Amino acid sequence: MNNKGFTLLELMIVIAIFGIFLVVAAPKMGGSKTDFKLYTIARNLVSDIRYAQELSINTRDKHGIFFSQSSYEIKNTITAKTVKTIEFNSGVSYEKIVDSSDNPVGDGVVFDSTGKPFEDDGASAFVNLSTIYLKASDVYIYIKITPETGEVSFERN
Question: What structural domains and CATH numbers belong to the chain?
Answer without folding.
Answer: 14-156 (3.55.40.10)
